[in-house]
Amino acid sequence: QVQLVESGGGLVQAGGSLRLSCAASVTISNIRIPAMGWYRQAPGKQRELVADITSGGSTNYSDSVKGRFTISRDNAKNTVYLQMNSLKPEDTAVYYCRSISTKTGGSYENWGQGTQVTVSS
């Protein structure tokens, strides 16, 4: 019902910035997306929350990115953004977009395909 397409990853030097985007394509009617977020997974590590945001604009950040990353959302476009500043080598990971969508009778979780972010020292 919801397909997520991420973009904006790449290679950047430490201290640099990147902006990730995730557009949700909705294929059925009467579906709401109350929450969207970004997770990341580094080699050999578990996937972890980076930041998430509700449709009302409430945000949540992991301690490791507070003050450096900003999550935002355009509800009209069903798109979530992650502005990443002051990047560090330890931010290197595959970044995944996640959505929680709801429709009468149930809720659904969807993930994007991931986008690589590499920060060189």
The percentage of residues in β strands lies in: over 45%
Unreliable spans: none
Average predicted local confidence, pLDDT: 95
Distance between the termini: 40 Å
What is the helix/strand order? EEEEEEEEEEE
Structural class: mainly beta
Number of DSSP helices? 0
Q: What gyration radius follows from the Cα positions, in whole Å?
A: 14 Å
Helical amount among residues, as a percent range? Answer: under 10%
By DSSP, the count of extended strands is 11
Shape: elongated
Major sheet description? 7 strands, mixed
Please name the defining characteristics of this protein.
121 residues, mainly beta, 7-stranded mixed sheet, 0% helix
Report on the structure:
The chain is mostly beta strands. It has strands at 2-7, 10-13, 18-26, 32-41, 48-54, 59-61, 69-74, 79-84, 93-103, 106-111, 115-120. Strands 2, 4, 5, 6, 9, 10 and 11 form a seven-stranded mixed beta sheet that branches. The chain has a four-stranded antiparallel beta sheet with strand order 1-3-8-7, with no helix packed on it. The protein is elongated. The model has no long low-confidence stretch (mean pLDDT 95).
Topology:
Blueprint: E1 2-7, E2 10-13, E3 18-26, E4 32-41, E5 48-54, E6 59-61, E7 69-74, E8 79-84, E9 93-103, E10 106-111, E11 115-120
Parallel strand pairs: 2-11
Antiparallel strand pairs: 1-3, 3-8, 4-5, 4-9, 5-6, 7-8, 9-10, 9-11
Please summarize what this structure is:
It contains no helices and eleven strands. The protein is mainly β and 121 residues long.
